[in-house]
Amino acid sequence: MTELTIVIVNYNATDYLDQCLDSVARETRRCSYRIVVVDNASTDQDTAILKRNHPEIDLLCNQRNLGFATACNQGIRRRPASYYLLLNPDSLILDGAIDQSLELLRSRSDVGIVGCRVLNPDGTLQLASRRSIPRLSTALYRLLRLSLLFPRSKVLARYNLTFLDEDSVHEVEAVSGSFLMFRAALLEGDGFLDESFFLYGEDLDFCYRALQKGWNVIYYPEAKITHFKGRSSHRSRKSLYHYYEAMGIFYRKHYGAQSSPLKNALVLAGIRLLYWSALLRTVITGRRDVGSPY
Length: 294
Hints:
By secondary structure, the chain is α/β, with parallel strands linked by helices. Strands 1, 2, 3, 4, 5, 6, 8, 10 and 11 form a 9-stranded mixed β-sheet that branches. The protein folds into 2 domains: 2-227, Spore Coat Polysaccharide Biosynthesis Protein SpsA, Chain A (Alpha-Beta Complex), CATH 3.90.550.10; 237-285. 37% of the residues lie in helices and 22% in strands. Mean pLDDT is 92; it is low at 290-294.
């Protein structure tokens, strides 16, 4: 059985995907791996050309866009392995990041998930590299921008953990879905990605369920990638919808049963209000960034 299966879900990011695959081959030397590319009905390039340029990949082509979580599960099932890496196509592997992350997983039996230091093209840290699981309080602090005003506060800046040293290894609650490595044991039972999430939120849900099963989630800054944030999802009104839809799915799944009907109604109405206000901003300004931490 393959030691590591790398799953890359592509949707109209083929130009970035070529660079991503080249960087995997160049920077991964100390493990045996297979790459499964799941194409979600891209229209930007003939997938036959992709296969010709990269004959080493296992290419699975969907006839329609099935969503990120479903496509990831397809890739996972395609090539059983001891470990898996979910990798965005608009990412570049730096300095042996895959080898280093896998070595950490091999050496720490208590760790279920490893995430790396995810960098912007200018070398700055993407805040989604290490996060807390969303809660009403942390969502409120972000909405009121208190987390930006007080980035060193362990209370107000809890979601993006900006009070942590970005150069140090930390146990966290969630890491970025752009580079998410995990051991196969997490897939037991209901461990696959929740396909209720079409786009956004599935990585948070996956990390949250790992924590509930007693696994540790590690932010490992020695491993680094560059992530051209958002290039693989092409910000649009549809992606904006899926971003806020994911908030509702996550809340209902993990908090809804514990809360009163009134609280649930207020929270879900608030999410809808955030969506409509964000949609209005895109119409007025033409700016389509949904503000995602991914």
